[in-house]
Amino acid sequence: MSIKITDLTPGFVGEVSGVDITRPLNTDQVAALEAGMDRYAVLVYHDQSLTDDQQKAFSINFGPLEHTAGGNVTKAAERRLDAYMADVSNLDANQQPLARDDRRRLFNLGNQLWHSDSSFRAIPAKYSVLSGRIVVATGGHTQFADMRAAYDALDAGTKADIENLVCEHSLIYSRGTLGFTELSNEEKQMFKPVRQRLVRVHPVTGRKSLYLSSHAGTIIGWPMPEARAFLRDLNEHAVQPRFTYAHKWKQHDLVMWDNRTTMHRVRRFDETKIRDMRRTTVAGDRVTVEQMAA
After folding, report:
1. pTM tops 0.90, yes or no
2. What percent of the chain has pLDDT over 70?
3. SS3 assignment, position 252
4. CB-based contact 209:261 (threshold 8 Å)
5. Strands (E), 23-119
């Protein structure tokens, strides 16, 4: 059986069939899936019961894995998963839901904000690959927004205004909007802002997209209040229903998305229930703008 990708949202989200990603892929299969990512930006796979090693092996087909260091406040001794698996569950090392006031849980509430994974890194991520090991019956959907379509829908004047703008991105900004402001000196250094272009060009298709995220806290050369007001307007434009898709998880679903052309967020759920979600991240290979000391 050959790989087939069916529209869930035309030109944005595709459903993949005809491949078992728990097994090694050949070069033709990898090429077909990468072409699907270039076309859609979000691909959904059902009934893929993966181990961590199988998930990492699948992800490596598309590039080296990103290390999770620098993207959370979880200490090494508290990790439930290895350093190349991002733990976006609500569980502690004993596989129990985190307490309501647990610092790790409060930090992870930032995942409910619209964002692009690792835009807070000098070299931001390429793809994210999220596996639903144990899903909740109610809530916990993941929403995606198409930043290519959002860019296309801007008027010509706004496109000209934003063409060369550069933003600062940091976990300090995104968590600060939730009131999570008590950071150690080590964490402040780890989360030091980086610079990213506001408009990105896809390296294969040449299509332009907005590069927005809750991590974006200001625009270089602009007063901060003006920058944040402008970024808020752009975000409101970009997440209109016509640009978005909500994925309702089934156990063993796997969703893969292009962080260069999308934003996403998780929706609220009952956190007394176990939700075991594990993400591998395919590292990016280039800066979006020459990085400078922020």
Report:
1. yes
2. 98
3. coil
4. yes
5. 42-45, 86-87
Nearest C-alpha neighbor of 165 from the set 232, 210, 116, 115:
210
**Which structural domain range is residue 125 located in?**
4-282
Q: Tell me: the pLDDT tens digits for 118-143?
A: 999 999 999 999 999 999 999 999 99
Q: Which two tokens stand for residue 239?
A: 């997440």
Spatial contact of 276 and 91, defined as CB atoms under 8 Å apart: yes
User: What's the pLDDT at 289?
Assistant: 85
122 domain-assigned: yes
Structural domain count of the chain:
1
Give the model's pLDDT for residue 293.
39
Residue 282 in tokens: 């395919």
Average pLDDT over residues 42-67: 98
* Cα 222 from chain centroid (whole Å): 26
Tens-place pLDDT, residues 147-175: 999 999 999 999 999 999 999 999 999 99
| Domain CATH for 44 | 3.60.130.10
φ, ψ at 126 (rounded to 5°): -90, -75
149 within a domain of the structure (yes/no): yes
Is 294 domain-assigned?
no
pLDDT for 290: 60
CA neighbor of 50 nearest in space, from 255, 209, 233: 255
* Residue 109: CA count within 13 A, CB half-sphere: 18
171 within domain boundaries: yes
Query: What is the dihedral sign for C-alpha 246, 274, 100, 104?
Result: negative
Please state, in angstroms and rounded to a whole number, the distance separating the CA atoms of residues 175 and 213: 12
> What percent of the chain is helix, strand and coil (3-state, nearest 5)?
25, 25, 50
